[in-house]
Amino acid sequence: MPLYEHVFIARQDLSNAQAEGLIEHFGTVLADNGGKVVASEYWGVKTMAYKINKNRKGHYAFLRSDAPAAAVQEMERLMRLHDDVMRVLSVRVDAHEEGPSVQMQKRDDRGDRPGERGDRGDRGDRGDRGDRFDRRR
């Protein structure tokens, strides 16, 4: 069966228990249609980049599933009809990664450090720019 990863955002005024209940509910929808949830994660309340339905924050949840396409379509249909779910994203993947998702890993485990600028490295004294001409002319 195909492998999928799903992320959905629920309304911010739900409690944590209700948001985790949505994860279980949509997992049973997949199971009823011949699929199974391999792993699920509750990412918590996060601030969104822009307002969705007058909400600035939302409960983020992540599911890894092994399900036929029909089961995924039915789950997405029910998510879009559900009043508490604001956004849904499902992506088909070749293989599930082992361990927690990037969102759940600690910053030190990912190799990111505050202030680190990626692959730019230390620029040093900027000697690669050459001499500047005299602007007082």
> What is the β-strand count?
4
User: What's the CATH architecture name of the domain at 3-95?
Assistant: 2-Layer Sandwich
Total count of helical runs of at least 4 residues: 3
Low-confidence stretches: none
What is the CATH C-level name of the domain at 3-95? Alpha Beta
How does this structure look, described?
By secondary structure, the protein is an alpha+beta fold. Helix content is 25%, strand content 34%. The chain contains 3 helices and 4 strands; from the N terminus they run βαββαβα. The chain has helices spanning 16-32, 69-81, 107-110; strands spanning 3-11, 36-52, 55-66, 85-93. It has a 4-stranded antiparallel β-sheet with strand order 2-3-1-4. α1 (16-32) runs antiparallel to α2. It is elongated. The model has no long low-confidence stretch (mean pLDDT 84).
Short account of what is shown:
By secondary structure, the protein is α+β, with helices and mostly antiparallel strands. The protein has three helices and four strands, in the order E-H-E-E-H-E-H.
From the structure above, extract its key features.
single chain; 137 residues; alpha+beta; Alpha-Beta Plaits; 34% strand; elongated
Set down the secondary structure blueprint.
Blueprint: E1 3-11, H1 16-32, E2 36-52, E3 55-66, H2 69-81, E4 85-93, H3 107-110
Antiparallel strand pairs: 1-3, 1-4, 2-3
Helix pairs in contact: 1-2
